[in-house]
Design brief:
Blueprint (H helix, E strand, L loop, with lengths): L1 E5 L8 E8 L8 H9 L3 H8 L9 E5 L6 E8 L8 H17 L4 E5 L7 H16 L18 E5 L5 H22 L7 H15 L2 E5 L1 H6 L3 H7 L7 E7 L8 E12 L20 H16 L4 E11 L11 E3 L5 E3 L7 H13 L5 E6 L3 H7 L3 E6 L2 H14 L2 E4 L17 E2 L7 H10 L7 E5 L5 E2 L9 E2 L4 H10 L1
Parallel strand pairs: 1-6, 2-4, 2-5, 5-6, 9-10, 9-13, 12-16, 13-17, 14-15
Antiparallel strand pairs: 3-4, 7-8, 8-10, 11-12, 14-17, 18-19
Helix pairs in contact: 3-4, 4-5, 5-9, 6-9, 8-10, 9-14, 12-14
The chain binds ligand BES, manganese (II) ion and zinc ion.
The site of zinc ion has 5 residues, from strand 9.
């Protein structure tokens, strides 16, 4: 699919379908729209009237143009209130257009949307992202795809000039999002700690990143007792992955991204019961998948920032070797943990990963994890929780996420709740009371960070979508690759 920006007057364009964006309650035809209406024998005004199209966000209508018009179809898309226009409005509008175009078997598409903030490059990139991400279809596990692929061959975005760089950037970012989606969607018998590490190795090789993978004995030598405690019951070896992107000049900043990478979470001996979500726990490496996705994009975008990508990959299983509820583990910073629930395994793996990240002497650490069901209860499926020890870092993540159209909500790091994690026998327990479960999880992680500015993203909800929504199709979303990439690029 060839996406391009253009300055050719859209009225002269010919192709299968043209998509016109309208603001809410601004569907009266003026200027060039009147000309188009005349050229098409009143088809545009008829479509707007017949569909009772008012330009509401998310609304759309399509019709065929009769006669021998150089345009076959007209699509109108609602962009919502003009005052609320953001890049994400266009990203979502483009996704709507792309899905309609697929249904209508459109091969050549023209898009006429407003330019946001006079920024033609960002406008183009947002539209391109909406198209690419909404059309992505994962047929790897079907012998015969039931959903016919899109026929879209060319997309012309009007009024933005030639934007090959912006399109290329969008394609690169989307390749990272799609990698994350495919890793999350792959079942645990396809993506396990070993194949997950092989994927990291492929990315490192293809995009020139440094990589070291610590094997079990090396993790033992580093005293990673928390990570290894979780890994014990698996028949597959744990893999501690560390990839580094090094810019050619002196880095402006050094960052670390740490992703929870449980390729399957059975709960361990505190086994998840049927209906508790065990069936979808292949997605418990969503944080790690987004970390690899971000690595793939960042390695190609080449910012002046050093970035470390860390994934402590394993699966949480049951066997005679499994850690017992009540076991005491010692993490690599020497802290002891009473495992009062083996299903709170993500924080155990992250404990050693965070200690490792801080030893790299970075300026900031962000971890992302499908950490708690409690965070889903608090914020629902679409919003990630955000905890931070540093206001500036939290603001950076917020800004990056708003441009990406990915949602985060700042949550409290309520020190007092750490009382719920006090253990009579060890330094801490790994789980506290049910109430505020996502907050105590964040407080647990905080024990493994000394002073480096740190943010924790609980992405348990948004990495997976039950149904098609926005740029996401049902299933893995690739959240929050775009936020991570923006954060690094803005650093
Ligand atoms: N991976 C789960 C959290 C999760 C739940 C992710 C639902 C995605 C969807 C995590 O390891 C877990 O099991 N958390 C427990 C913690 C509890 C034992 C304190 C939970 O949320 O129930
Ligand atoms: Mn668990
Ligand atoms: Zn888990």
């Amino acid at each position: 699919m060839d996406i391009r920006g253009t300055d050719t007057p859209w009225l002269d364009w010919s192709g299968d379908a043209i998509a016109l964006g309208f603001f809410e309650n601004e569907t009266a035809l003026t200027g060039e729209l009147t000309q188009l209406d005349e050229k098409t024998g009143g088809t545009l005004s008829e479509l707007i009237a017949e569909a009772e199209f008012e330009g509401k966000a998310g609304s759309s209508a399509v019709t065929r143009i009769g006669g021998n018009s150089p345009l076959r179809k007209l699509i109108v898309v609602g962009l919502g209130k003009a005052d609320d226009l953001t890049l994400n409005t266009l990203r979502l509008g483009a996704a709507t257009v792309a899905r309609l175009g697929k249904k209508e078997k459109v091969k050549s598409l023209g898009i006429k949307f407003p330019v946001v903030n006079n920024d033609a490059a960002a406008t183009t990139a947002a539209i391109a992202e909406g198209i690419i991400l909404s059309l992505h279809q994962d047929n790897r596990f079907k012998s015969e795809p039931e959903d016919k692929p899109s026929k879209l061959e060319t997309v012309d975005i009007f009024g933005v000039g030639e934007q090959s760089e912006a399109v290329k950037q969008a394609q690169t970012v989307c390749s990272g999002v799609i990698l994350a989606r495919e890793l999350v969607a792959a079942p645990a018998n396809a993506i396990n700690p070993v194949t997950f590490a092989e994927t990291a190795q492929e990315i490192a090789r293809d995009y020139n990143l440094a990589i070291e993978i610590l094997e079990q004995d090396q993790c033992e030598a580093r005293g990673m007792g928390a990570f290894l405690g979780v890994a014990k019951a698996s028949d597959l070896p744990p893999k501690f992955i560390h990839m580094t992107y090094q810019p050619s000049g002196t880095p402006k900043r050094k960052l670390a991204i740490v992703g929870k990478s449980l390729t399957f979470d059975s709960g361990g001996l505190n086994l998840k019961v049927s209906g508790s979500g065990i069936e979808t726990m292949k997605m418990d490496m969503g944080g790690g998948a987004a970390t690899l996705g971000a690595a793939k994009a960042i390695a190609q975008l080449k910012p002046d920032v050093e970035v470390h990508f860390i994934c402590a990959a394993t699966e949480n299983m049951i066997s005679g070797k499994a850690m017992h509820p009540g076991d005491i583990l010692t993490a690599s910073n020497g802290k002891t943990i009473e495992v009062n629930n083996t299903d709170a395994e993500g924080r155990l793996t992250l404990a050693d990963a965070l200690v490792f990240a801080e030893q790299l002497d970075v300026d900031a650490i962000v971890d992302l994890a499908t950490l708690t069901g409690a965070c889903i209860v608090a914020l629902g499926d679409n919003i990630s929780g955000l905890w931070s020890t540093n206001e500036t870092l939290a603001a950076e993540i917020k800004t990056a996420s708003e441009a990406a159209g990915e949602k985060f909500w700042a949550m409290p790091m309520e020190e007092k709740y750490f009382e719920g994690l006090k253990s009579p026998i060890a330094d801490m327990k790994n789980t506290g009371p049910r109430a505020g479960g996502s907050i105590t999880a964040a407080l647990f992680l905080k024990q493994f960070i000394k002073e480096t500015p740190w943010a924790h993203l609980d992405v348990a909800g948004p990495v997976w979508a039950d149904k098609e929504q926005g740029v996401n199709n049902a299933g893995a979303t690739g959240f929050p690759v775009r936020t991570l990439v923006n954060w690094v690029l803005n650093s």
